[in-house]
Amino acid sequence: MKRPQQFRFVRRPEGVTSRYVGVVVDGNGLPHRPLTIFYHELQQTFADGTARTYLKALLAYFTYLTTDAWRLRRQDRWDSPPNAVREAVRDYLIEYLHCKAQPKDTYQLVSLTVKSPNSVCVFLSALKQFYHVAKRFGWYSYQILWYTYVMKKPITVKAHLSIETIETRYRKAKDPVERSHWQIIWLLAQGKTTKEIAEVTGYCPTWIRALAHRYNDAGPQGLGDRRHGNPGGTCILSPEQQAQLQQALEEPPADGGLWTGPKVARWIESHTGRKVHAQRGWEYLKRLNYSKRVLRPRHAKADPAAQEAFKKNSRSR
Fold first, then answer.
1. In 9-162, which residue ranges form alpha helices assigned H by DSSP?
2. Is the torsion defined by CA of 28, 30, 36, 38 positive or negative?
3. What are the backbone dihedrals phi and psi of residue 9, each rounded to the nearest 5 degrees, phi first?
4. Which residues contact 117 (CB under 8 A, 6 or more apart)?
5. Where along the chain do its domains lie?
6. Cα angle at 125 between 124 and 130, to 5 degrees?
7. 259-290 burial, b if ≥16 CB within 10 A, otherwise e?
8. Angle value at C-alpha 241, between 240 and 243, nearest 5 degrees
9. What is the rounded average pLDDT of the residues 294-315?
10. pTM, to two decimals
């Protein structure tokens, strides 16, 4: 017995006049009118690339309906009653797209596994669009509760280390950032979802995924607080220039008074040619342990002789 071929799209030959750019044919080479019109409708709404992607996802499913032994035995078709359609879609998701399907009150919850392709969401969207078109054209009159919610594919980490070793590093880590990183990898290695890990650790799902990618790419060396290895910016003043500034601070500034942050900043600008904020001047004053030398204030009409006599009389009492 000749094995049926897959559903496929046949482009319109040159010289043939038709409103359609091509025809979808079934495994026996016969035109499939609903899918052909569906593709035409997609082209009116979406870009060509999106329309082709949607059609490709449905061609695989329609091939499944006409080649799977169980579907043939049940005589399931795309236009079967809703319960049969939902069961066929569920079996296709589980057996061919490696998903998990769980019925809810008003929808079916679809969970992706590590084996699930990235086209699951495309398939469900295309299927929903197809039945909308089918109902609009009068090909299908039933109302179907669709698989409307899809969970993201769980993140996996490469087996650079065993789960026991990862847990040991998490428990023994001293640096708080490194400890959090090992905790996240340990939870991921146990199969926890990003949502569960976010609730435990306080990290957002985006950062958890980024950390998992870093661990998968670089292994244990990719974890930890990378700021520890950051050498920081270069100093504005070289050691020789800092020594010159230290010497300048021993004398009053050129305009008199005391050294301040703005005055040190101007000194740095004159010796380096770089524009420096006053805050940088204060930082160099602190770095060089400079302290203000402020004389005790004197009254303008004070009598030094009377003050000295007052001090002597105070000591003799």
1. 33-45, 48-67, 69-74, 82-95, 120-136
2. negative
3. -105, 130
4. 97, 98
5. 8-151, 163-227, 239-287
6. 95
7. bebebbbbbbeeeeeeebeeebbbbbbeeeeb
8. 65
9. 69
10. 0.50
Q: Under DSSP, is residue 126 helix (H, G, I), strand (E, B) or coil?
A: helix
| Residue 213 to residue 217: CA distance in whole angstroms | 6
- Mean residue pLDDT across the chain: 84
Highest mean pLDDT among 10-19, 54-63, 187-196: 54-63
Separation of alpha carbons 62 and 86, rounded Å:
14
Q: Quick check: 72 and 66 in contact, CB under 8 A? A: yes
Cβ–Cβ contacts within 10 Å for residue 51, how many? 20
Give residue-wise pLDDT tens across range 238-249.
Answer: 888 888 888 888
**How far is the CA of 314 from the CAs of 303, 305, 311, in angstroms?**
17, 14, 5
* E-assigned strand segments in the chain: 8-11, 22-25, 99-103, 108-112, 149-151
Which phi and psi angles does 126 have, rounded to 5°? -65, -40
Interval 1-17: pLDDT, tens: 445 579 999 998 888 88
Q: What is the pLDDT of residue 259?
A: 87
- In angstroms, rounded to a whole number, what is the distance separating the alpha carbons of residues 40 and 20? 6
Strand 108-112 to strand 99-103: parallel, antiparallel, or no bridges (unpaired)? antiparallel
The DSSP code for 155 is P
Query: What are the backbone dihedrals phi and psi of residue 105, each rounded to the nearest 5 degrees, phi first?
Result: -65, -50
| The pairing of beta strand 99-103 with beta strand 8-11 | unpaired
Put residue 44 in one of left, alpha, beta given phi > 0 → left and psi -120 to 50 → alpha.
Answer: alpha
